[in-house]
């Protein structure tokens, strides 16, 4: 029997232990890692094979730190993320979906978690389909003011190319690339191309 690899991120150590004990009763679920902070979560995602990630929205006293973590994690690895929350807030739920989560569950309803894990793992849920389209829409929204040539330059910046590499790839002068990047930053109202990339990848969420 194929087991679903699950990791849990929550700053409440006792809650993690309780959830690990609860999920271990389900033979098709394998807990492959736990983390109590955003940095620990990112390290686990980079080092362990995970199918479904359970992420607490409120990490380390920051109401949105879990959301920010998801926005970074889904760009590292295409995971299915279920948000854990104690608050039934429409705004928080919307921001979670924008960041890349595909479902959420109230902690009080923890008994629903195994079923949600299985559904997320086996199928592309209707909400996933909607979210894929929504994330594409949010990406296009961030880039809507850029010209086609500026979008091309941005795509290479997003891939990690240096100015020199972009210059050689597109057969443009260094000054042309610099001018286009300045225009991109101005239109997107950001101070650096790294900030521009983060803004696009997070659907415009303000991340500190």
Automatic annotation (TrEMBL):
The cross-references to SUPFAM superfamilies, in alphabetical order and at most eight, read:
C-terminal effector domain of the bipartite response regulators, CheY-like
Q: Which UniProt keywords apply?
A: DNA-binding, Phosphoprotein, Transcription, Transcription regulation
Species, as recorded: Pseudobacteroides cellulosolvens ATCC 35603 = DSM 2933
InterPro entries registered for this protein in UniProt: CheY-like_superfamily, NreC/VraR/RcsB-like_REC, Sig_transdc_resp-reg_C-effctor, Sig_transdc_resp-reg_receiver, Tscrpt_reg_LuxR_C, WalR-like, WH-like_DNA-bd_sf
Q: Write one Gene Ontology MF term.
A: DNA binding
Endpoints of the signal sequence: none
- Chain ranges of the HTH luxR-type domain: 139-204
Gene3D superfamilies linked to this entry:
3.40.50.2300, Winged helix-like DNA-binding domain superfamily/Winged helix DNA-binding domain (1.10.10.10)
**Keyword presence, Phosphoprotein:** yes
Q: Give the organism's phylogenetic lineage.
A: Bacteria, Bacillati, Bacillota, Clostridia, Eubacteriales
What GO biological process, any one, is recorded here?
A: regulation of DNA-templated transcription
Known function: May play the central regulatory role in sporulation. It may be an element of the effector pathway responsible for the activation of sporulation genes in response to nutritional stress. Spo0A may act in concert with spo0H (a sigma factor) to control the expression of some genes that are critical to the sporulation process.
Q: Which residues form the Response regulatory domain?
A: 5-122
What is this protein called in UniProt?
A: Stage 0 sporulation protein A homolog
Residues recorded as bearing 4-aspartylphosphate in the entry? 56
SMART domains, A to Z: HTH_LUXR, REC
Q: Which Pfam families match?
A: GerE, Response_reg
């Amino acid at each position: 029997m194929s087991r679903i690899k699950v990791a849990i991120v929550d700053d409440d150590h006792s809650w993690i232990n309780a959830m690990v004990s609860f999920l271990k009763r389900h033979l098709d679920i394998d807990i492959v890692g736990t983390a109590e902070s955003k940095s620990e979560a990112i390290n686990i995602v980079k080092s362990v094979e995970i199918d479904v990630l359970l992420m607490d929205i409120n990490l380390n006293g920051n109401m949105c730190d879990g959301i920010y973590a998801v926005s970074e994690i889904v760009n590292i690895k295409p995971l299915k993320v279920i948000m854990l929350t104690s608050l039934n807030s429409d705004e928080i739920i919307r921001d979670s979906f924008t960041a890349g989560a595909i479902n959420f569950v109230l902690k009080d309803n923890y008994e629903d978690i195994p079923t949600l894990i299985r559904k997320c793992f086996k199928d592309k849920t209707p909400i996933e389909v909607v979210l894929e389209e929504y994330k594409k829409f949010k990406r296009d929204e961030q880039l809507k003011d850029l010209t086609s040539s500026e979008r091309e330059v941005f795509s290479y910046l997003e891939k990690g190319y240096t100015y020199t590499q972009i210059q050689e790839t597109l057969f443009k002068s260094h000054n042309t690339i610099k001018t286009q990047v300045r225009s991109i930053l101005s239109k997107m109202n950001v101070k650096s191309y790294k900030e521009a990339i983060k803004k696009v990848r997070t659907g415009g969420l303000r991340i500190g």
